[in-house]
Amino acid sequence: MKQEKKTLSYYRLRLEVYLKDYHPQLLSDETFIRERSEAAAKTYEEAFLQDNPIGIAESM
Q1: CB 3.0-4.6 Å disulfide test: which of 3, 11, 16, 23 passes with 40?
Q2: Name one Pfam family in it (predicted).
Q3: Digitized pLDDT (tens) for each residue of the chain, 60 residues in all
Q4: Distance between terminal CA atoms of the chain?
């Protein structure tokens, strides 16, 4: 049996916790989770690279 290696993502984990608490029906939607967590990571990276303070970048 081949095991798929999963990359840990802060934004993915945060989204999964939120979904578990408030929208458990969406936990099985892998595409939704992947797209939203990647978008959040990209937004944070762009804000950080524009010299925004970490607190501001996290809130975007």
Answers
A1: 11
A2: DUF1896
A3: 566 666 789 999 999 999 999 999 999 999 999 999 999 999 988 888 888 777 776 676
A4: 40
